[in-house]
Amino acid sequence: MSGDAASAGKVEFHHGVGDKLAYACRLLRKAHRAGARVVVTGDDATLRTLDRQLWTFDEQEFLPHVLAAQPADVPARQHDTAIWLTPDAASAPGERGVLVNVGQEMPRGMARYARVFDIVSSEPEDRQLGRQRWKQYAALGWQVQPHEVKE
């Protein structure tokens, strides 16, 4: 996928996660509270599920987000939404410093982000695909920092 060593940044590799999307919701809440503008990438089905979970995971708080399966179709008034869920991280509008990958492949468009979070569940297939992404990040010159999650 895309990414080049000239613009390589840092990948925080969060592995051993029991529920990948619940973990993503908590991570996004923390990022939003810190004022970060975030893009979340993954496959369409995963992003649709995450979209639903963001509406219900915390009864006390709303996280402003937009599901942008086709970013070009998102109305301009929603372009400043703090959290974008899209399969193509390169197409999110504006300056966004953080990319969260909940998918099983290298995120497209990651070269425009200084900081990437890659969330890997404890499921064997997801762990194996995570190992492959780790090697790909390192081969592109990204600094990979592991975070084992104990839930």
Could you explain how this protein is built, in words?
By secondary structure, the protein is of the alpha/beta class. It has a single domain, classed as DNA polymerase III subunit chi (Rossmann fold, 3-Layer(aba) Sandwich), CATH 3.40.50. It is 28% helix and 23% strand. The chain is built from 3 helices and 7 strands. The chain has a 7-stranded parallel beta sheet with strand order 3-4-2-5-6-1-7, sandwiched between helices. Helix 1 packs across helix 2. It is globular. The N terminus is likely disordered.
Overall, the morphology is globular
Determine the mean pLDDT: 89
Per the CATH scheme, the topology name is Rossmann fold
Query: Strands across the major sheet, in which order?
Result: 3-4-2-5-6-1-7
Number of strands: 7
Radius of gyration: 14 Å
Q: How many separate domains?
A: 1
- Summing up helix and strand content along with how strands pair, one would put the structural category as alpha/beta
Task: Outline the biggest β-sheet.
Answer: 7 strands, parallel
CATH architecture: 3-Layer(aba) Sandwich
Strand content: 15-25%
**Residue share in helix:** 25-40%
CATH class bucket: Alpha Beta
Distance between the termini: 31 Å
List SSEs in N-to-C order: EHEHEEEEHE
CATH superfamily: DNA polymerase III subunit chi
Total helices: the number is 3
Low-confidence stretches: 1-6
